[in-house]
Design a protein that fits this description.
heterodimer, A: mainly alpha, 8 helices, 70% helix, globular, B: Thrombin, subunit H, six-stranded antiparallel β-sheet, six-stranded antiparallel β-barrel, 12 strands, 27% strand
Chain lengths: 161, 279
């Protein structure tokens, strides 16, 4: 069997993440929507850095840009930067306990949000409420243990390493 | 055997390259509008996902109409029929006025509106960037939708198309802070520009001198001066006028007449004007 076919779970997980990103939510819940694609990309960079590097996480960012109707390249840049930090320190982050990993994920998500915020500010789409703007990072931190465990189980079942 | 400690320079270099690539793509997209082709290709990839996301909403509408009682349908049918009769009656008068208008314009020797053709499109129940006022509609380049095309609903101007995909396109609403629309006040003929505020129920009228004649409840129509929107479509109703002392311009806000955050169906307008005839 073609060895590349074993990696189908990676595109499948991103398809799910993109759908969750586009899923219509009531207006009050929209600012809290976690950055699903960034969370999934962080997992794959940490788990399989040789297969899924910062190039592919940049491409996923580009998909988000098109899906969200944002400026082409703004999420891509943010994803490349957090992908870089995750890739650079993946050996260290992998052995952290889940709680500590979650805190690190919070920091990385805030970095990405800040990059997107700067670009939005330059193009004149700055949000009114700064505290609310960073809410998705907090939600992402709370979700990380579940995403990590779920994707790890899927990866082990597919015997990807 | 994989090396345990890999060289970090490789990925740092890659990050720098990707960063430079992102910045150049963003510049091309924002300043020069050169990324249509790339966006169209990627949106084709995302299209199946968008359809899947939209499916529950569509099933919901379908289910609601499937299980609604005969009584409700009869009532609705009755109401729509009377509405149709009323509109046809109004249309007769409009047709007469239009021919008269065309004849008068002919006498004056000025160019006249040839007529707009429209296409009904539905919004896809897909969420976009929460900090931009945009909607996704289910017609794309396949249906001859073009960038810059006006989008209206039954009661007013909604926005314009900014990206076209093969089967879908994205419309920027008039309530987005980066959208500006040349308009004219119906009562006085005062020309101004309407910009969005990021709030779907609030638009701002810019560059109105404090001494200008504008009042609350004035209706604002497209002036057609930008060349993008056809003239005489309703845009907004003035909701507040503030004339701060010592300032050159009044602060005027308006409520859009289109149901910007509630419409499920929109109209795409193909706007044609006859070129000005040279003497």
């Amino acid at each position: 069997m073609n060895s590349w076919l074993r990696y189908w779970v990676i595109p499948a997980s991103f398809a799910m993440a993109l759908m969750l990103t586009m899923l219509p939510l009531p207006a009050w819940a929209q600012p809290y929507r976690p950055d699903w694609v960034a969370l999934v990309a962080l997992y794959w960079v940490l788990a399989l850095p040789r297969v899924f590097g910062i190039g592919l996480s940049w491409c996923c960012g580009l998909l988000v840009d098109v899906a969200q109707g944002a400026l082409l390249g703004q999420h891509a840049l943010g994803m490349a930067v957090i992908g870089y930090f995750a890739h650079r320190f993946h050996q260290r982050i992998r052995v952290y306990p889940l709680a500590q990993q979650s805190l690190l994920v919070l920091v990385l998500l805030c970095v990405k949000l800040t990059i997107v915020l700067w670009i939005n500010g330059i193009t004149g789409h700055a949000p009114d409420n700064m505290l609310l703007y960073y809410a998705p990072a907090l939600i992402g931190m709370l979700l990380w243990p579940w995403i990590f465990t779920l994707l790890r189980d899927v990866r082990r079942r597919q015997k990807l390493r | 055997m994989q090396p345990l400690f890999q060289q970090a320079t490789g990925i740092t270099l890659r990050l720098v390259l990707l960063g430079a690539l992102s910045v150049s793509i963003m510049t091309l997209d924002h300043r020069f509008d050169h990324m249509h082709f790339v966006r169209e290709q990627i949106s084709l990839l995302i299209y199946p996902l968008q359809i899947l996301v939209d499916l529950p909403a569509r099933l919901g509408t379908w289910g609601a109409s499937a299980i609604s009682s005969q009584r409700t349908l009869l009532d609705e049918n009755e109401r729509l029929r009377s509405e149709g009769t009323l509109m046809r009656a109004q249309l007769q008068k409009l047709a007469a006025l239009e021919t008269e208008n065309a004849r008068l314009r002919d006498l004056l020797g000025s160019s006249s509106k040839v007529g707009d053709s429209v296409l009904v499109a539905a919004l896809l129940a897909v969420d976009l960037d929460p900090y931009r006022q945009q909607v996704l509609i289910n017609k794309g380049a396949r249906h001859n939708v073009y960038t810059g095309q006006p989008v209206i609903d039954a009661s007013g101007v909604m926005g314009q198309i900014i990206h076209t995909g093969t089967f879908t396109s994205t419309a920027l609403l008039i309530s987005d802070p980066s959208h500006a629309l040349p308009v004219q006040v119906d009562r006085t003929g005062l020309r101004t520009i309407v910009t969005g505020t990021g709030n779907p129920n609030r638009l701002e009228l810019r560059f109105i001198p404090t001494t200008a004649d504008i009042e609350v409840d004035d209706t604002v129509f497209t002036s057609g001066l930008g060349g993008r929107f056809p003239p005489n479509y309703p845009v907004a109703i003035v909701s507040s006028v503030e004339r701060p002392r010592g300032q050159a311009f009044a602060r005027v806000f308006a409520t859009p007449t289109a149901r910007i955050d509630r419409s499920r169906e929109v109209l795409l307008v193909w706007h044609q004007t006859e070129p000005l005839q040279s003497e």
